[in-house]
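Weekly structure sync, notes
Attendees: PL (lead), two postdocs, one rotation student
Agenda item 3: pending single-chain targets
PL asked that the sequence for the first pending target be pasted directly into the notes so everyone works from the same version. It is reproduced below exactly as submitted, 381 residues in total.
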Amino acid sequence: MFVFTNVTYRWPGGADNLVYLLVEHLFRETGEKVMIFGKEDSYLVGRLSQNGIGFEFYDIDDDAGYAKVGKNDVLVLSSSYYGLKKFRRTGCRVLVWNILTFSMIRWNRLQFLGENRLAERVRFFFNRGFLRFLRARNALVCMDATTRRELDEYMGASLETPIIQVPIKVSENRHGSARPGEVVNITYIGRGDEEWKVAPVKKIVGDLRAFDLSARIHVFTSQTDLFERELAGCAGEGVGISYHTGYYGERLQRMLLETSDVNFSMGMSALESASIGVPTILIDPTHSGYPPGYRYRWLFEARDFSLGEFVDEHSPISGSMDLRQVIGTLRDDDARRSVSERSFDHVRRNHAVGIVFERFMNHRHYVSIRDVARFTPNMWL
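Predicted structure, written out during the meeting:
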């Protein structure tokens, strides 16, 4: 039985949707259930229950649930978290499927050592040893080439980590061929809980202003406070901003089909729009700012399942289009139809849940939870 844990978010996010699709596909195809450790009011638990997907749920803070995990169960981890040491006594097996390198290199925070050079060296020693061990046992996989490259940079060597890409449901290209009106409708999908998730919208608004372009931006998010604070005063003079909360799954896709001429998103959110044929720009996140002259790229131009990478003012420019060229493509009938079909085909060939599920199930290399503990002092105490 597979075990997914740290399921606590009350709003949808990429990792939660990824787990939902795998759990749903497993249950629909085989009738097999998974174990989920999280919070009962989390988005993932609620959605699985609402849609009649069978699973076994245990509260993440209730020690009794961990007694249900056996040595043949597989704990799928994307990062460390405060409750990981509770699994040590279960004897389960572990597969590390990495979403963000940032989370991977924080297995050993060892906060009691403080923030100094010695503490940094100790953390790096354990983290590097753990990653090398996982890779030697083939129990480490990445979700895209960007994560793999960042891991290699952290390690100072090529691990040649295998990739199991992010899944999405794909059926048919449902995006219409209607030409955009005088005001182009741009959509963005992303939670509004951290500034780096708001930064892409600020970038789009800035480029609209710079090129004196008119557009309506529709933000699909879980909460609006941070967006409204960061984008205060941005609306007006040809740029309108609307917020839509509580949309996910089929309901989100229907709204995208009604409102979107083009979607700008990062991560799994870019797959959401492309999976129904909406022309999709893969935009990068940033903690600081975009490099001067940052340019955009279509999702289908990404290689090795890349879903974006963190950039800053000194990052090389990776795309080929400015916003004026993106909108020009949308106003050309043949070009617009082409980017719609290519966005859809990219997802259908590379990210369809059936394809990803098969790769996930065929990867049968694990380590024991006790092996994880050897490299993770957080689990010793």
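Discussion points:
- The longest strand covers residues 215-221.
- The chain has a mean pLDDT of 91.
Action: rotation student to compare against the earlier draft before next sync.
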